[in-house]
Design brief:
The protein is of the alpha/beta class and about 280 residues long. The protein has a single domain, classed as Metallo-beta-lactamase, Chain A, CATH 3.60.15. About 20% of the residues lie in helices and about 25% in strands. It has five helices and 13 strands. The strands form two sheets. It has an eight-stranded mixed β-sheet. The longest helix has 21 residues. The relative contact order is 0.16. Bound molecules: zinc ion.
Length: about 280
C-alpha cells in the first residue's frame, strides 16, 4: 500500500512539474464588461408560478472578454450602444448604458479585429445588440438558436435577426453553430455547455481559470440568485421541462467542479470578478 501511494505521489509530482516546466497550463485572463442596465418595475414575467409578482428589480447586463494566449473570446454582446447617454423606457423597463463594448476594449488596448470569437449564450436582445461591431469574428451560438435566427422574419425584441446580419445571407462571416457542448480554444479551458430551456440553444460558459479556479457564467439560465433556490422559470422561456433539466445539469456541474457561479444579470454578483479594467487570472 505504501509503495502504491508513493508511486501515485511521485507520478503526481512529476506531472505537475512537467506542466510548470513546459508552461502548458493555458494562459487565461478574463474581464467583466459593463453592457448596460435594465430597471424592471414588475418581475412577474420571470416566474410562470407567480413567484415574483409585483417585485421591482434592477438587472445588470454583463459581457465578458476572455484571453487565451493571443486569442480573445467576447462572451455576449449586450444592449444597444445607442443607449449610451440616452436611456429608454418602455413597458415598465428602463434600459441604459454607460459605455459601449468597443470603447471599453479600446481602453485596454484591444480592437474588435483582435477578437477571434464572438460567442453568445442565446439570441435575446440584451445579449447580442453590439455583435455587428465584431463582424470579423467567428460567431459561436447554439445550433437551435441559430436555426431560429435564420428563420426569423420580423423584429420581435426576443427574436430579432438584425444584430446577426453580418453572419446571415451570402458572402458573410463565419459561424460555428454548436449542437451540444463546444471547447472554444481546443484545450479544455473554456467550454460552452448546452443548457436549453430559456431558448432552445442556450449555453452557459465554463472557464477554468489558472488562479481563480473554475468559473461558470450562467447566461440567462438564471437572472438572479432567488431563481436558483426557488426554481423560478420565466414565462418567456421556450421550454419549462428543458429549463428544469438544465438547472440540474448546471447545479451538479457547479458542485462537482467547485465553481464560482456568476449570474451576469444579478448586481450582487458584480464583485465576483475584479472591476473593469482589472482582470481575473
Ligand atoms: Zn434572455
Amino acid at each position: 500500500m505504501k509503495t502504491f501511494l508513493g508511486w501515485l505521489l511521485a507520478l503526481g509530482l512529476a506531472a505537475s512539474a512537467t506542466a510548470q516546466d513546459t508552461g502548458s497550463a493555458p494562459d487565461l485572463e478574463m474581464w467583466r464588461l459593463g453592457c448596460g442596465e435594465l430597471e424592471i418595475s414588475d418581475m412577474a414575467a420571470f416566474s410562470d408560478a407567480h413567484l415574483y409578482d409585483g417585485e421591482p428589480r434592477t438587472l445588470t447586463v454583463s459581457c465578458y472578454l476572455i484571453r487565451n494566449g493571443d486569442q480573445y473570446l467576447l462572451w455576449d454582446a449586450g444592449l444597444d450602444k445607442a443607449l449610451v447617454g440616452a436611456s429608454f423606457t418602455q413597458s415598465g423597463a428602463t434600459l441604459s448604458m454607460e459605455q459601449s463594448i468597443e470603447k471599453q476594449l479600446e481602453s485596454i488596448g484591444i480592437s474588435p479585429s483582435d477578437v477571434t470569437y464572438a460567442g453568445v449564450s442565446h439570441f435575446h436582445f440584451d445579449h447580442v445588440m453590439q455583435l455587428p461591431d465584431f463582424a470579423q469574428s467567428t460567431l459561436l451560438i447554439g445550433a437551435k438558436d441559430w436555426e431560429m435566427i435564420k428563420a426569423a422574419t420580423g423584429p420581435d425584441p426576443l427574436l430579432d435577426p438584425r444584430p446577426f446580419a453580418p453572419w446571415l445571407g451570402d458572402d458573410t462571416g463565419q459561424v460555428t453553430a454548436i449542437a451540444k457542448d463546444h471547447d472554444v480554444f481546443g484545450d479544455g479551458s473554456v467550454v460552452m455547455k448546452a443548457t436549453p430551456g430559456h431558448t432552445p440553444g442556450h449555453t452557459v460558459l465554463l472557464v477554468r481559470m489558472p488562479q481563480m479556479g473554475n468559473v461558470l457564467l450562467t447566461g440567462d439560465l438564471y437572472h438572479f440568485e432567488e431563481q436558483v433556490t426557488n426554481r423560478g422559470v420565466p414565462e418567456f422561456n421556450t421550454d419549462r421541462a428543458d429549463t428544469l433539466a438544465s438547472f440540474e445539469r448546471f447545479n451538479a456541474t457547479a458542485k462537482t467542479l467547485n465553481a464560482t457561479v456568476i449570474i451576469g444579470h444579478d448586481p450582487r454578483h458584480l464583485d465576483r470578478l475584479p472591476p473593469f479594467p482589472e482582470s481575473a487570472r
